[in-house]
Amino acid sequence: MSDRQTKTDVILIGAGIMSATLGSMLKELVPDWKITVFEKLASAGEESSNEWNNAGTGHAALCELNYTSEKPDGSVDISKAINVNEQFQVSMQFWSYLVNSNLIRNPQDFIMPLPHMSLVQGAQNVAFLKRRFDAMTSNPLFQGMEFSDDPKKLKEWIPLIMNERTSKEPIAATKIDTGTDVNFGALTRMLFDHLKTKNVDIQYKKSVNDIKRASDGTWELKVKNVDTGTVERHNAKFVFIGGGGGSLHLLQKFDIPEGKHIGGFPISGLFMVCNNPDVVAQHHAKVYGKAAVGAPPMSVPHLDTRFIDNKKSLLFGPFAGFSPKFLKTGSMFDLITSVKPDNLLTLLASGAKNVPLTTYLIQQVMLSKEKRMEELRAFVPNAKSEDWDLLVAGQRVQVIKDTPAGKGTLQFGTEVVSAADGSVAALLGASPGASTAVHVMLEVINKCFPQHVKAWEPKLKEMIPSYGLSLMNNPELLHEVHSSTAQSLGLSSVPQPVTQA
Ligand SMILES: Cc1cc2nc3c(=O)[nH]c(=O)nc-3n(C[C@H](O)[C@H](O)[C@H](O)COP(=O)(O)OP(=O)(O)OC[C@H]3O[C@@H](n4cnc5c(N)ncnc54)[C@H](O)[C@@H]3O)c2cc1C
């Protein structure tokens, strides 16, 4: 144990997109607050936020079929899609503010314009997609979306998917050109570089191992130097647990009532990646299909163009899987050590309910490369095994908690858990994920600093012009936000043409 002990205003645990976002927002709101970051890995954005550990979809509900559902009367409920879209617009505005204020540069290094498409097959699915298109395009948020069930048109939009397609089944797609591919790893690193220039103390290879309340009411963190094994003590008035999959274990150490009766269920992700330039050149979109029966919502199959390090590649997946680790770099004991007396019944109830899901995930893990290629060929009929490699992506830890729907209910969204006195907040869950980081961090700010929010409002409005307003209900503001963010983030450029095979 070292004698070193420090006191600071804010500690952020973990150097992923969430801590990066909260740190950047707080530095704008209260520049003189002292912020320290502890990250157990050697650099920022190495876990789920890393560009190869997630799909890089700027989730704005422009293509994800799981954000809309069919009501018993056949009409389509788009309320979730509206929420996700509004939340993504909040991120876009904050990123634009950072670029316009020269706090980060070269937006093309982290965000690229890319058409977002939904694709379905079969008469029933085609009819649903058309009803969904009608419902969405009657809302100002989704203006510009197109629908086609004409194979000729689809061949223009998605030649790689349509070429050599022999199936005579009806097929249809929607397409909207205002979608994006986001390199969340690059953005995370940019934000931490920016925070360094603002005197934020960022300490890598430092693992937060224990926490207790100090006599002066601050939180005392025991932080281990991963290289030397030395343990230091650091105190803060406010702690944000941005440990990604590691957040649940950290929350449990805080021993606050709000953190009880919560469990976690890890779902791993695998992608197939293609770097063959001839194949890559034939596709320019993110194309989301329908999830298989029994599959969790985050494993909706999609074929995406990715822009990473100025290089285009294709990603297909994700294939969900089961691993007891809560982080990609985590331990095989993560799941078992997350079981505590207070969440045991919640986890048991969930285990009993989710046998089919666990079975599905285990089956997914066992799939051979050829079996995965068969799933890919439903998208790309002439996909060749030698063009595609398997890529292990990040872990998502889904929240399990007791809800009015029942004990041990598996949640597929994100949850901000905070202490009643606002001295600590944790982010659990991972969907819609990094895309909505700014909205979620606003929730942290509102829950943990209610006494400051009124005074911070003018700055919040400068950073996020739609702060406190619904864009859907303010079409003029929506138009302004669309054009100004597209301009600042360099998204107005003409889409690249797709090569016809
Ligand atoms: C397969 C997959 C696909 C996804 N696709 C998308 C997508 O297309 N679009 C989207 O918006 N989102 C997507 N997501 C979700 C998105 O990646 C996450 O929501 C987001 O990256 C989480 O960021 P974070 O900062 O909370 O966690 P992370 O990026 O995981 O960062 C947490 C950090 O905390 C550190 N840490 C943990 N414990 C400790 C400790 N005790 N002490 C010190 N440091 C610690 C970790 O080392 C890590 O660096 C996807 C996720 C997965 C897994």
From TrEMBL:
Q: What does the record give as its pathway?
A: Carbohydrate metabolism; tricarboxylic acid cycle; oxaloacetate from (S)-malate (quinone route): step 1/1
Q: Which family does the similarity line name?
A: Belongs to the MQO family.
Instruction: Report the gene name.
Output: mqo
The EC number(s) this enzyme carries: 1.1.5.4
For whether the record's keyword set contains Zinc, the answer is no
Check the record and name the InterPro entries matching this protein. Answer: FAD/NAD-bd_sf (IPR036188), MQO (IPR006231)
The biological process GO terms on file are:
tricarboxylic acid cycle
- Quote any Pfam family the record assigns: Mqo
GO MF annotations for this entry? (S)-2-hydroxyglutarate dehydrogenase activity; L-malate dehydrogenase (quinone) activity
The protein's name: Probable malate:quinone oxidoreductase
Top enzyme class: oxidoreductase
Query: What is the source species?
Result: Paenibacillus endophyticus
Keywords attached to this Swiss-Prot or TrEMBL record, sorted alphabetically, are: FAD, Flavoprotein, Oxidoreductase, Tricarboxylic acid cycle
Q: Which reaction does it catalyse?
A: (S)-malate + a quinone = a quinol + oxaloacetate
Required co-factor(s) are: FAD
